[in-house]
Every structure is written in C-alpha cells, then in structure tokens.
Predict the structure.
Amino acid sequence: MKQEQQTLRLKSVPESIHQIEKLIEDICDSNNLNHNYLGCITVALTEAFSNALEHGNNNNPEKFITVSYEKSPTGLSFNITDEGTGFNYHSIPDLKDDGTEKVFPGRGIFLIKTLADEVKFLGSGNELEIGFKISSINFETAVDRMKKFKDYSNSEKNTVK
C-alpha cells in the first residue's frame, strides 16, 4: 500500500490556520471521507494549532508550527509541533462533558481528546500526535470488498429467475 505523508511548516500567525483547513479538505476528498470525519479532524487540528500558536509559541510570528500528516492502513495520524518549551500535560484535568457551554483551562485539549481516537503528548509537551481510526481508508480492503460485492450481486442475478 502506498503511504501518504505531508508536512507543513507554518508561521505562527492566525492566518496559517487556513493552510491546515485546506490540507484536511484535500485529505478527506482524496480518501472519500464523509463530512463527519472532516468536522472532527478540522476541530481537533485547529484546536491543536491554536494551542501551539497561543500557548506554545506565544503568538510570536518569528516562530513556526509544524503539522505532519501520515496515512496508514488503519487511519490518519497528525503531528503538531511548536517551538515553545512545552508544558506539563499531566497537569491538565480530565474533564467530562456535562452538556453545558463553558470555558475552562484545557478546553481545547478536552475537545481534541473527545473527537480523536488517539491523542499522545510527546517530548516536553510541545508535540501532539492525534490519530483517527478509519477502517475504510485501506484501499486494498475496499477493493476486495467491492469485488466480493460484485461477485455476490452477480451470483444473485444468476439464481433469481
């Protein structure tokens, strides 16, 4: 299976978020992913970018945020790295969604953890890996399923008279 990878090195300015949104749209289009995946991935990555911009790089336009993407047989993985010193990610409270709208420290991380299948903090806390399990992304499996469906359809046509 052909592995897809891409890396963006973005300036620490709010306008760079549009490049991430474009990357996500291209990935979802090329992999025929529905709007549910598009929404979850977009919110998770834009929250991660915003955290890296504000808390990691302190809105310093001289610093960069690196966003890497990799497609695997089981899904998509994104890595967001800022040039900040990091933080103690163990100190973030494990929040539960009680259905009320509120703003609290760690809200962005809470959203990321809620929307993604896997979230890992790496290094000193200035690197975040976000994974989305997407079983239909394995092209070989999809082709095999389509062949089996066609075989089944043809056998049904031949038995119904």
Q: What stands out?
A: The chain has four helices and five strands. The beta strands are 4-11, 64-72, 75-81, 118-122, 127-133. Residues 35-56 form the longest helix (22 residues). The two ends are 41 Å apart (CA to CA).
